[in-house]
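TASK: fixed-backbone design
INPUT:
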């Protein structure tokens, strides 16, 4: 699975700036959600890997925005999962939702830029979230395990 690199992606311009901000907001939500669910899930390595990947992606995205002379959107104080998290099943559902949100957000960046480096970075992020959403769907016994078009609104 690809990790965000410290190499600079292309600088977002125009509509891509808002799309990158939206993707950053999705990364903030993912970091928060992984923290929330860690008390309910036994897959510690898988949870830690996801949390670390989102922290790294968040940090790289903040640098990207600053390099483009744009102030990154700050994280919210808290986020609302799709349903209360009370056990491992609801925790996995929250992770599936947050990973799908990441797919949608990074696909939005792909749709709004022609910059090759920024597109590569967005595709790496979308792919990484799609892999994690598949793993969580498998862990949760959800069917189908994989989605045909992660990142589409219908997913």
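OUTPUT:
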């Amino acid at each position: 699975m690809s990790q965000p690199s410290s190499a600079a992606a292309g600088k977002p311009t125009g509509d891509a700036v808002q799309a990158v901000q939206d993707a950053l907001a999705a990364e903030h939500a993912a970091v928060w959600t992984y923290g929330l669910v860690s008390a309910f899930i036994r897959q510690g390595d898988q949870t830690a890997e996801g949390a670390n990947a989102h922290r790294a992606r968040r940090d790289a995205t903040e640098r990207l925005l600053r390099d483009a002379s744009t102030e990154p959107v700050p994280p919210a104080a808290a986020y609302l999962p799709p349903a209360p998290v009370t056990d491992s099943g609801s925790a996995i559902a929250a992770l599936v939702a947050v990973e799908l949100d990441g797919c949608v957000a990074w696909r939005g960046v792909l749709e709004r830029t022609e910059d090759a480096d920024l597109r590569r970075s967005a595709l790496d992020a979308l792919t990484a979230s799609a892999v994690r959403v598949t793993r969580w769907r498998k862990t949760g016994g959800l069917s189908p395990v994989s989605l045909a078009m992660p990142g589409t609104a219908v997913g």
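COMMENT: The mean pLDDT is 90.
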